[in-house]
Amino acid sequence: MPSRPAGAGCTLIPLKKIASLPKNWQHGPCANGRSKPGVHLSAVPMRRVMRRCNQPETDDKTMIKKMTFLVLLTALTPFSACQAHNTQETPPPSLPAYASTTLTPEIGGIKQVIEIKTDDASKPVLLFLSGGPGSSMIKGADSFTSILKDRYTLVQWDQRDAGKTLKLNPSPTQPSVAQMEQDTYQVIQFLRKELKQDKIYLLGSSWGNVLGFYIVKHHPELLHAYFASNPVVSQLESEKELLQALKVHFKDHALASQELDSVSFPFASDESMFYLRKWLFYKDGKEFATSAGFKTGFLQWSKTWSPVWNEVMNIDLPKTLKSVDCPIYFFVGKNDIQTSTRITQAYFETLQAPRKGLFLFEQSGHQIHQDEAEKFQRAIIQVLDAADQS
């Protein structure tokens, strides 16, 4: 469909008000600002950016595994049709209450793990695209989907060379952005067929937005709406901004200053990339980031993923994607310096879309779904309620 001017056809409801809702409140407000009985929520114009919302290890092997996982989980750490191979021969038309069904369709030439949770497969589908690259959201998903499960059929997918998919079968080729974009498309097509739905809701977390924006650009007809959580927008610019912020923060720290001074763009080596993430994590209170185990884990990760991250460094959405043909909603952590909040807000203002919104989470950094899990879910449900009323 043709794009409408930025800001057309959408209103936002401050998450500050959502945060104050009674605990037994189950549904978000209507698009026109009307709410459920007994709850008063006010709407603000679309173009206004919302201003409210907001252990040490002793065993070396355990430490390395934990550090590596945290690196992968912290998204943006530099960092053909599909044929189903179902663990059940005949998938049921309606799954038991909050059942967890794990499927292993063939995606991109390998078996990839997809987990579906629902009590009614006719509910709208919400597919999460994990950050990383190389990480999985499956293990901790209950902590940020406990409210969403009442409204959506929830789908988690472990991408190639990540999580359960990696355990099942490593990628036979070096992963690339283009390859994983095609994987994403095939996963969506598989879900549409498996769950008998024409469109889905899609959410990208950090690196997951590299894949998500590919779908938004090339296959918007497959989406009810897209949620971009701490997205990659202009990553080279964001990395440069991060480096300067760390240099200022550690100006009186000799080792940090020395290592940060050695960082250049594009990254000359995996070690250069490591220094930037090491001091970012240390600044955030993760003292293990200065350990030898963390460095070992990071450099092991980078053997697979640094080529992918170097591709990501070339992404510049304000130049390559100025309009989209599906509703889009940005979730931004106010304290995020991995994917610059400033850059994301500026892109939001210029992007043209049929409907769009930006939710600013004031208590969050780069992991909104962990830092403010309830508000994160309420914002997603708010969008669903608005769609129901339109």
Overview of the structural elements:
- The chain has 390 residues and is an alpha/beta fold.
- The protein has 13 helices and twelve strands.
- It has helices at residues 15-19, 60-73, 163-168, 177-195, 208-218, 235-249, 254-261, 270-283, 292-312, 317-320, 341-350, 368-371, 373-389, and strands spanning 11-12, 44-45, 99-103, 106-107, 110-111, 114-118, 125-129, 153-157, 200-205, 223-229, 328-333, 356-361.
- An eight-stranded mixed sheet has the order 3-6-8-7-9-10-11-12, with helices on both faces. Strands 1-2 form a two-stranded antiparallel sheet. A two-stranded antiparallel sheet has the order 4-5.
- The radius of gyration is 21 Å and the shape is globular.
- It starts with 10 loop residues before the first strand and ends with a helix.
- Residues 1-58 and 68-90 have low confidence and may be disordered.
Unreliable sequence segments: 1-58, 68-90
| Strand element count | 12
Strand order of the main beta sheet, please?
A: 3-6-8-7-9-10-11-12
**Rg over alpha carbons:** 21 Å
H/E element string?
Answer: EHEHEEEEEEHHEHEHHHHHEHEHH
Fraction in helix: 25-40%
How many helix segments?
Answer: 13
Strand content: 5-15%
Structural class comes to alpha/beta
End-to-end separation in angstroms reads 17 Å
Question: How would you characterize the largest beta sheet?
Answer: 8 strands, mixed
* Overall outline: globular
Average predicted confidence as pLDDT: 82
